[in-house]
Write a structure and sequence with these properties.
Largest sheet: 7 strands, mixed
Helix content: under 10%
Radius of gyration: 14 Å
Low-confidence stretches: none
Order of helices and strands: EEEEEEEEEEE
Distance between the termini: 40 Å
Strand content: over 45%
Length: 122
């Protein structure tokens, strides 16, 4: 079993900052690509940021220059530092990862966390 657990969401005023964390645990051989998605009410889930195992990073245009994704490979953690938050950043943020599970060889499976609410409002 593999679990992704997010933390760090909450209510913040426009212009403020939050740092989300994602902890991976379970029968994990390696965490390959890991990233953050978000889903606002009435909208489709969208990719916010993602980092691959070779360090390649992707950001959605809407968050470039404001959000920073990072990872701690030995601790199987990922982070999303969110600065200059805007009301339109309000959403449930989900951690997503491609994981190689012990015993399954080179097969990489995709997992989701349960999500953490981020609300940007005055």
């Amino acid at each position: 079993q593999v679990q992704l657990v997010e933390s760090g969401g909450g209510l913040v005023q426009p212009g403020g900052s939050l740092r989300l964390s994602c902890a991976a645990s379970g029968t994990i051989f390696s965490v390959d690509a890991i990233g953050w998605y978000r889903q606002a009410p009435g909208k489709q889930r969208e990719l916010v940021a993602r980092v691959t195992d070779d360090g390649t990073i992707y950001y959605a245009d809407s968050v470039k220059g404001r959000f920073t994704i990072s990872r701690n490979i030995p601790k199987m953690m990922a982070y999303l530092q969110m600065n200059s938050l805007r009301p339109e950043d309000t959403a449930v943020y989900y951690c997503n990862a491609d994981v190689k599970v012990i015993g399954l060889g080179s097969l990489s499976l995709n997992y989701w966390g349960q999500g953490t609410q981020v609300t940007v409002s005055s």
